[in-house]
Amino acid sequence: MTAPTRPTPPVQLTLSPGTGALGGSNGRYEKFLPDLAGLYRDRSAYDRLVDGDDGRPVYWVESSQTEDGPGGLITGVSVLEPGRVGEEFFMTRGHLHAISDRSELYVGLSGEGVMVLETVDGESQVVEVRPGQAVYVPGQWVHRSVNVGTERFVTLFCYAADAGQDYSIIEEAGGMKSLVVARDGGWAAADNPDHRGYRAD
Amino acid sequence: MTAPTRPTPPVQLTLSPGTGALGGSNGRYEKFLPDLAGLYRDRSAYDRLVDGDDGRPVYWVESSQTEDGPGGLITGVSVLEPGRVGEEFFMTRGHLHAISDRSELYVGLSGEGVMVLETVDGESQVVEVRPGQAVYVPGQWVHRSVNVGTERFVTLFCYAADAGQDYSIIEEAGGMKSLVVARDGGWAAADNPDHRGYRAD
Fold this sequence. Notes:
The structure is a homodimer of 201-residue chains. The first copy, chain A, is mainly beta and 201 residues long. Helix content of chain A is 7%, strand content 42%. Chain A has helices at residues 43-51, 168-172; strands spanning 11-16, 21-23, 27-31, 59-64, 73-80, 84-85, 88-89, 104-110, 113-119, 124-129, 133-137, 141-147, 153-160, 178-183, 186-191. In chain A, the strands form five sheets. A six-stranded antiparallel β-sheet of chain A has the order 3-4-5-13-8-11, with no helix packed on it. Chain A is globular. Strand 1 of chain A pairs antiparallel with strand 11 (133-137) of chain B, so a sheet runs across the interface.
């Protein structure tokens, strides 16, 4: 006889949009400049930044997960510092979910950002995410966050606990199809000449 | 030969915490006082409210769903007007997910509310939900929102598209185990003498 499984306790989370702290979280990872080699096209601009690196993370994620499997959800906060490498704005590596039909919700909490969304078939969209805006990323979309403002860009996310992340799909394609670059004091989407198309598996 | 399935387009949503409007939504339902017969213990207080009913909804939900199945998420906004029926505050009917292991995230957008969470085994918790707070409701928890403030209580929610709702589990139990009632200018949890325990199926 096995003991009955006790339901997972509810979790109360506290959001601090300005700093991006997530009270009640149980997971965190950080990405520093040296972790991001190859992510940006302007290698000399990247090298100069690494030379002057102050050791703070470029972005980090605080998350809460208490359940595995398709019934659970992972939620958390993603925080991207403002900055550029050459003409490209600071951005996350981006991913497709390892279970590729898994979707994700992002809610803008502070700052000015965009999400780049691309399908393996070559569709590409860039969607603004500001406080008071949310973006639903359906399954089958590779996606990345970009901070196009001058403050921290903070989003809340929520996705199925079994989704996983495939980061290599972007590396293997030579980067995403669209770059988000500085133009005339704002941002613009530009074609990435290094993009070779996504693998179709 | 079938045509290849095109990925579902991303959805941009706009939140208006004060009013609870959700720009970009594609679903809405409203609950009016006459829909809520039997939900509150004080029948004469309920009857008096119905007699003076101005016909506006007590609560409504605006939602966005573009995908079915376990990979999709339904997101939206729930809006509860302030008010009481006798000593009980305005609340939603509450539900367990029809696929009972499906969890749900609620994020406070405006107003002052609580969530009542109960397991079939008799655990009961009442958790505050204010702007800047979120509650993760794991699978197997019956849950309901209650507006304990004087303004609209607005939350953002997110859950798996295949989860469904079982509303009857609460009715069949004689209501939830805990009531949320007015006490000394605030709120308190009180035992519901009509609660008969949840069915275990």
